Amino acid sequence: MRALVLAVLVLAAVPASASALDDAGYWAFADRMQAPIDRHWNDDAGLFNGFSAGAHADVLLTYAVAAAQGHEGPARNDRRARRLVDVLVASPPFVEHPPGHAKQSHAPGFVSSVRGFRGLQHLVVDSEVIDGLRYAWIARRELGLSGRQAAAIRDRIHRTALGAFWRWPVIRLNQINWYALVYAANATVTGSPRLLRHDLRLQIERFVARARGTGAVAGNLGPGLHFNYLPHFRAGAQKNTDSAEYANITASFTREYVQARRAGMAALSPAARRLLREWLMRVLAGYWTHGGYLNWDTGFGFERWHQAKKLGLSQQALIGIASAPSLAPRRVPAWAMWMLDRGFGVYERQVVRNGGEPPGLLFGVNAVPQQSESARLGLARMTSNAARAIAAGLGSAPARRPPPLYSFDPDTGRLAVTTPTYNTAIVPSARRAYPYGGIDLARLYDGRQEVAAGIGGRPPASFGLLVRDVAARRRFATQLPDRGRLWLTRAPLGVRARASAWTGRAYAGPFRDLRAAGLARGGGWTGRTSHRFTPDFVQTSWSLWRSGAGGRATVDVLFPSWGADARVTAVLRDGGTRRVDSVRLGLGRVAHLLIESEHGAYVVVPTQRPRGATVHLLRTEHQSSAPLAGPALAVQLVRRGRARTARFGARYAPVERERAAETAARMAR
Questions:
Q1: Strand, coil or helix: 528
Q2: Which of 32, 176, 455, 638 could be cross-linked to 203 through a Cys-Cys bond (beta carbons 3.0 to 4.6 Å apart)?
Q3: Using the 8-state DSSP alphabet, how is residue 587 labeled?
Q4: Region for residue 523 given its phi and psi (left: phi exceeds 0; alpha: psi -120 to 50; beta: otherwise)
């Protein structure tokens, strides 16, 4: 019943057509999310059970901004805020001496536990606690903090910021965001801007100077400006495949940029400004979707993929880009606002579907389970991001729906595409970081970030060509990682981009008609894909030929579905309909096919109907990267034959179920 009530509130407060949230909209989200947070409050102890120090700080941040803004609602609780200040300035989590067990052991600083000294030490812990404390200090009068509490906040932040773990030239890999936040908080509570205007500028300029790799060292950014998590490793290292989450975490340094400039930080060099503009466009177009969610591939694989707590951190890049218009290209801040606002709705729907409890992992991913503390941290971060948006003035800033966007990385071949109708990516090279990939679409979501087809499966739970021998064993597929390559054939930028050439440019931005081709070989077979991306649909042509294989083979082109109850309906040329199952139906009779997944749907309109081709369903099994895979629609081009070539083409796009026929008719023109 509780989940049903929450679902009604979601639908009433966050309509799918909403273009932007104002302060009232952000507070409405924060107020609703406060309910699952409040269930864990322990009044005797003065803290939240099962919450880390960072999660407590995020709740404090929300309370503090609510007080500063005069908000009245569940997201404000001055009494609890005062108690949380006492919790966070106490020891633990504050430490005066380095705990030797921690990988990033240092002092002064913070551990992740509020109950003992055995917690994690990491830059994210210091910075997250400090972020909450600085907003409490800003709202100290509204919250009714005592002079002792305000002084303790100032002391903990200032001593941590001056510690050797944080002062220039120290850097953790290339993650300048943590330093930006700590320097900004120190300037806020002490009135001394030196670290913010001096050390931060040095950190940013060094990030830019080390963007390009040298020799065997990858550098911070690859060709096309994807993010290298391990800049001191080789470019081909697994974790340097890319990292949507850590790229955004690093890009969140933009949250502090305006304060730094106002504090007297000198303007960045022209070269730094140019590169950062290019990179921030790549961040937005390559890592985010119109639905407000990460276009997510990561060299960390299941250690990070679809973690709610990482989504909350990543979202702060959107807040920063939206609030630092002088850094990002024109119009990009308003696009970031759009994506940020819609992301709150995506997360809230996941909470509703999880019975009102915060999920630790989204979209059914469960290969590396998350503990309840992780899920609660994700909830606290997402809630506090609404407060951060208000504090940054975004409630009155313009939001604009982005045009169709793409991003291409010539070294890995990754192509990310997002439009108001759908979002997807092609990832030929996974470098063994994750089990999906190939020269076909890795996933397909609709414009609201509902799964239309899948999130990252392998054959048969994937798009693409599948070749099996007479014993039904797989002999070749186009959707297998590290078996092929992809290149752009029509695009505003990147058509002739080379993997070996570092230009300092992002092959990313708006498009109208984007085209790419892929080639894969294996087992004596060669497959080619030709993709066309438009604002409304994807069109793909598949070609297969023998390049040494013998014997009989069955050839299918696959279209995946999502959810146990997924179904496929064939709309026939004579106007009738037929449920597609394991019995083959002649493709020549089919006008289009509707694939209905658990929460989304898409249509497939054939553009080629080879003689003798049929359609039927293939059973799939759940996979680590496709835990909710449904049956796959198979367009069978060859059945146990010796044909040397096979071809098929189709247009496909997510649709609203009740408008599928209308959409298919437009796509068929």
A1: strand
A2: 176
A3: G
A4: left
Query: What tokens appear for 427 in the block?
Result: 């990832």
What residues have CB less than 8 Å from 45, skipping those under 6 apart? none
pLDDT at 80 exceeding the cut of 90 = yes
Q: Do residues 430 and 481 make contact, with C-beta atoms less than 8 angstroms apart?
A: yes
What is the tally of helices (H) and strands (E) in the chain? 17, 25
Q: What is the pLDDT of residues 550-567, one digit of tens each?
A: 999 999 999 999 998 999
In order of 253, 440, 488, 513, the CA distances from 519 in angstroms are: 39, 10, 12, 21
Length of the chain in terms of residues written = 669
Whether 296 is covered by a domain: the verdict is: no
Strand partners, 221: 227
Helices (H), 191-325: 194, 200-209, 244-251, 257-262, 270-287, 308-323
Q: First vs last Cα of the chain: how many Å apart?
A: 46
Residue in the structure block whose two tokens are 């503009």: 277
Q: Is residue 181 within 8 Å of residue 254, measured between CB atoms?
A: no
Beta strands 41-42 and 47-48 are antiparallel
Does some domain include residue 657?
yes
Q: Is residue 220 part of a domain?
A: no
pTM: 0.96
| pLDDT score for 19 | 52
Angle at 296 between CA 322 and CA 432, to 5 degrees: 145
Q: Is 10 within the bounds of a domain? A: no
Domain that includes residue 99, residue range:
40-192
Around 196, how many Cα atoms within 13 Å sit in the side-chain half-sphere? 25
